[in-house]
Amino acid sequence: VKDPMINSGNTNNIVLAKNPVTNFKTQLQLQGINLSNDETNKVVSLQHVKSSSQWAASDSGDANSNLENNFYSFSNSLNPNGPQTSNDYFNRAANYADSVNSYSKYYFDTEYYKKKQIVLLVKWDTQTREFIIIHFDGNISNYQKTNNLNSTRYVVVPDNIYTNFSTL
Length: 168
Hints:
The chain is an alpha+beta fold and 168 residues long. Helices cover 34% and strands 15% of the residues. Strands 4-3-2-1-5 form a five-stranded antiparallel beta sheet. Strand 2 and strand 3 (130-134) form a beta hairpin. The chain is globular and about 45 Å long.
């Protein structure tokens, strides 16, 4: 099965080694990102954060206004049978945030890191196409469906990074 995140025309995403953890490090370095040990530990930790059942505030507003903006911006992507209210939208987002299945993977957001120097992972399900941000404090945002992720912005975090992060 071909990973939809790998764009064969982009040399930044060529698999450079057989070890997925080494590939993760290399893909970040190709974009000028060298994680410290603390930041690497955050990558590991973020994969295990559970939803706080709170919506995240944004740079432009508080949590409630961000929830309303996200609902109006992204709820149509969840159709058919999409949420009809912001409360329904929030409940679906929280359920997805805490769900576990083999199709959901975590991705490192390189643009967010370059802009804010903050580690942020997104969760994306390759089967349902659900996408969400789960922040370090468990607050959630940007729940939507998207057919693909920008292959240079998002770098897949290896499933085994926890047991192999010392190799980074």
